[in-house]
Amino acid sequence: MRRAAVLGTGAALPVRRVSNAELAETVDTTDDWIVERTGIRSRYIAGDGETTSTLATDACRQALASAGMVATDIDLIILATATPDQTFPASATLVQAALGINDCVAFDVAAVCSGFLYAVSIAESMIRAGSATNALVIGAETFSRILDWEDRTTCVLFGDGAGAIVLGATEDGRGVLSAKLHADGRYNKLLYVDGGPSTTGTVGKVRMKGREVFRHAVTNLASVLGEALVAADLTPADVDWVVPHQANARILDATARKLGLAPEKVVVTVADHANTSAASVPLALDTAVRDGRIKAGDIVVLEAMGGGFTWGAAVLRW
C-alpha cells in the first residue's frame, strides 16, 4: 500500500531566547506564576529579519538534509501558519522561492495550532492518491507579532519558531496510518484574533478565555487521539510516543491521564519553546527524533487543538 512516511525532520528558532525572568521585567508577572500555571520557562521571539517564511525555510533545509534530499525533489509544499508574512501570496510560495524550487504546488493552511495536523492530512492524501510524491509539510509562526504585551494572560504563553518534515511516498509499511480532523466554529470567541483584512483592516491581537479553552482541549484531544487509534486498529498500549501540541503542561498531563498513557511516553518541549501554535508539534517531533527517542518502527501519535476550534490527530509508524 502506498503511504506517506516521514523521511526527515527539521526545526528553526529565532536567535533571541526570552526567559520568564526577562519577561517579568516588562510584564506584570513572575517566573513562579508562569511555571505553576503553564510549565513554560522560556520562549523565542523573532527579531529584525526573522519572519514566518525565513524560519520555515531554515526548518525545511534541515528537514531536507535529514532526509538526504535536495529541494528539487519536492513537488508539494504546505505551510501551516496563522501569522503569514503577507495577506497574500501564501508564505509557502516564499519558502518555495527561497529554496530555489521553480515549480511545485505550494499553499498555506490556516487552522492555528491544529494547522500542522491539517497540513499532514492533506499532504498524506495527495501522496496516497498519487498527485504528489515528496512534500515539505511545515508549521511556522511569529505569534509574538500578534500578542498584546499588556495582557499577561496571553503574552506569556506564546513564542515563535518553525518545524518541518519531508513526507514521501513509500510502500514499506511505514507512514501515516490514520488521520482525523475536526472543527467547531461555535467556539470562535474563546480563542481568536480581534482583527482581519475584511473586518478591521488590521492584524489584530490574540484574545483567549483560558479556562474554557483548557476544558475543551482535554476533552477534544483525548477523543480525537482515541478516534485516530481506532482508525489505525491500535490501542493506547501500542503507542510508543505521543507528540502533542505544546500549549500548556497541565493540558498535556491531563490528556495523558484521560487516555491512561504513561507520562514518559509524551514528548514535552513546552518549557523551552512555549506555545508556538502550528509550529509546536513539528518542533517537538524534531526534538524527539534528533535526541534518539523516536526510532524506526515506533508508533507515534501527533495531536493538536487550536482556535476555531480546530483539532486533530494522526498515527504514524516511524
Describe this structure in words.
This protein has helices at residues 20-23, 31-38, 52-67, 91-99, 115-129, 152-155, 210-231, 249-259, 270-273, 280-290; strands spanning 3-12, 16-19, 42-45, 76-80, 105-109, 134-142, 160-170, 175-183, 191-193, 206-208, 241-244, 299-306, 310-317. It is α/β, with parallel strands linked by helices and 318 residues long. The protein is globular. Helices cover 33% and strands 26% of the residues. The chain has a 5-stranded mixed sheet with strand order 1-7-6-4-5, sandwiched between helices. Strands 8-13-12-11 form a 4-stranded mixed sheet, sandwiched between helices.
Report the oligomer. single chain
In spatial order, strands of the major sheet run: 1-7-6-4-5
Residue share in β-strands: 25-35%
Largest sheet features: 5 strands, mixed
Per DSSP, the total helix count is 10
**Helical residues, percent:** 25-40%
How many beta strands in the DSSP annotation?
Answer: 13
Radius of gyration: 18 Å
* SSE ordering: EEHHEHEHEHEHEEEEHEHHHEE
> Structural class, from secondary structure content?
alpha/beta
* Poorly predicted runs of 5 or more residues: none
Overall mean pLDDT: 96
Shape: globular
Distance between the termini: 16 Å
Question: Can you lay out the helices and strands and say which pair or pack?
Answer:
Elements: E1 3-12, E2 16-19, H1 20-23, H2 31-38, E3 42-45, H3 52-67, E4 76-80, H4 91-99, E5 105-109, H5 115-129, E6 134-142, H6 152-155, E7 160-170, E8 175-183, E9 191-193, E10 206-208, H7 210-231, E11 241-244, H8 249-259, H9 270-273, H10 280-290, E12 299-306, E13 310-317
Parallel strand pairs: 4-5, 4-6, 11-12
Antiparallel strand pairs: 1-7, 2-3, 6-7, 8-13, 9-10, 12-13
